[in-house]
Design brief:
Length: 289
């Protein structure tokens, strides 16, 4: 087997990461995990390794996850065809039962197990636990799809203070006990805002905001919330990217220092973003940089 790096080269790489380790030590980073990085087993392993490494060097990582492909797979197995309106899953009573089973059960506990396997300490939560995510119906056409009304962040803070990685599935609830399916990006933005996180990372299946969607080299590395509005007016930000950037703007307004939209299909993209000077994806900047 070819030796890729000498010991001296490995040591040099570590020393180059030192300023970034200092920068994020003791800070909170919220990672919204989904897309291809979640269904590809090799990428999933690398994401979990990245999160554990950050945890071990003193970064307070909060992992917020979805599970759309697994939900659709289970619905198909049960003979129930998935339906979507404006990119959101139509969620009737039977579907919300499936969503709860997959998100709060299978997906959440699998991620907790993986983090523990790679040396982290993790505890799984759903947005129903401790009424973490309170919600109300978003649109009558969508059924049990929720709009976030309140975040009760204390359970997450308690876990962080005790040295755990909180792993949060995006379910919400209301005072009547109804359960809601919450968009993962939206939930992550609200949670990151409540934590006043140093950074929120949205893992997607694209490189970031592209000036030309057909040209991956046209990546826009940095934007402000105000510049996003201009890019929308110019037709550069369209379609499914619009709700993502609106979540970024919401997070910045709530007090997150900056948000990164990045390609989760790139191996170790989280470490590239946080521990190198090149970064990854598009950063939406808020506050003093």
């Amino acid at each position: 087997m070819t030796k890729l790096f000498s010991n001296a080269e490995r040591a040099e790489i570590l020393t180059q990461a030192l300023p970034y380790i200092r920068q994020y030590n003791g800070k909170t980073v919220v990672v919204k995990y989904g897309g291809n990085a979640m269904v590809n087993s090799e990428l999933k392993q690398q994401v979990m390794e990245d999160i554990v490494l950050l945890h071990l060097i003193g970064v307070h990582v909060v992992l917020v996850h979805g599970g759309g492909p697994e939900i659709s797979e289970m619905m198909n197995r049960l003979g129930k065809k998935p339906e979507f309106i404006d990119g959101l899953r139509v969620t009737d009573q039977e579907t919300i039962d499936i969503v709860q089973m997959i998100l709060a059960g299978k997906v959440n506990k699998t991620l907790v197990s993986l983090l523990e396997r790679y040396g982290g300490q993790a505890i799984g939560l759903s947005g129903m636990d401790g009424r973490l995510i309170e919600a109300e119906p978003k649109d009558p056409r969508l059924g049990y799809v929720g709009k976030v009304t309140k975040i009760n962040i204390r359970p997450v803070i308690d876990l962080l203070e005790r040295g755990y990685i909180p792993v949060i599935s995006t379910l919400g609830c209301d005072e009547s006990g109804n359960i809601y399916n919450i968009n993962g990006d939206t939930a992550a933005a609200h949670i990151a805002g409540a934590l006043r996180a140093e950074r929120m990372i949205l893992m997607t299946d694209i490189a970031g905001i592209l000036r030309n969607r057909e040209d991956p080299d046209s990546l826009i590395p940095r934007v402000t919330p105000q510049e996003i509005e201009t890019l929308k007016q110019e037709g550069i930000i369209t379609g499914g990217m619009i709700p993502k950037v609106e979540c970024c703007q919401e997070a910045i307004r709530a007090g997150v220092r900056n948000v990164v939209i990045m390609d989760g299909r790139i191996p170790h993209s989280i470490l590239m973003e946080l521990l190198t000077n090149e970064g990854a994806g598009t950063m939406v900047m808020g506050g003093a940089q």
